[in-house]
Amino acid sequence: IDFKNTLMIMTSNLGARELKDFGEGIGFSTSATEEAMDQNKKSIIQKNLKKTFSPEFLNRIDDVVIFNSLSREHIYQIIDIMMQDVYPRVEELGYSLELTGNAKDFLAKRGYDPKFGARPLQRAIQKHIEDPLAEQILQSDVKEGDTLVVDHENDNKELTIKAKKSGGKKKSTSKKSSSNSNSESKKQAETKSESGESSKEDQSE
Fold it and tell me: pLDDT digits over 25-77, tens only?
């Protein structure tokens, strides 16, 4: 096997337990924990590497890259990326979807696990948004053209989905315009009939 021009990348979770006990991975990282971790996490991981691998093997590794924990902003960005697949499917059904900041907080808490990272986020979106949204549409609680707002209120265990009605005024104005056009057409018909009768009377005279 020729390994010329080959870059080998190896991953490991060595030191993960020690980092968790230190504070890494418990909830979201803050500026204080990030600064403290920058000073201590590399030494923690280096100790675990020396315990696990031989010096000969470690000397053949060019560099050890340590990945930081996900911040709240990172989780929000991942939620936005995952929701890009949901928005078009909702629009195809004739609705528009909005996600509030409180709803993102709810999804971030339910969908982020220090052990598994952001992998559970997709399941959280499926459980708390897609499934309830499908049920609400099937029950005809919303009408085509409505804007569905996903929000979280107080200490509720689930998200709320409320519809912002749209197009109501336009429909009423269209009805008025149609009634006005009907009345105008009736008036025109009456004037035509009157003119026809007057012409007949003139001819009879």
Answer: 444 555 555 666 666 777 888 889 999 999 999 999 888 887 777 888 889 99
pTM: 0.59
Binned at pLDDT 50, 70 and 90, residue 177 comes out as very low
**Residue 66: burial class (beta carbons within 10 Å; 0-12, 13-18, 19+):** middle
Check whether residue 155 and residue 131 sit in a common domain. Answer: yes
Distance, CA of 151 to CA of 143 (rounded, Å): 19
Identity at 76, one-letter amino acid code: Y
Residue 59 to residue 76: CA distance in whole angstroms = 39
How is 60-129 classified by DSSP, letter by letter?
T------PPPPPHHHHHHHHHHHHTTHHHHHHHTT-EEEE-HHHHHHHHHHH-BTTTBTTTHHHHHIIII
Tally of domains within the chain: 2
> Does the residue 138 lie in any domain?
yes
Question: Of all residues in the chain, what percent carry a pLDDT higher than 70?
Answer: 70
32 and 110 fall within a common domain: no
Domain residues for the domain of 95 are 72-164
Q: What is the pLDDT of residues 83-104, one digit of tens each?
A: 999 999 999 989 999 999 999 9
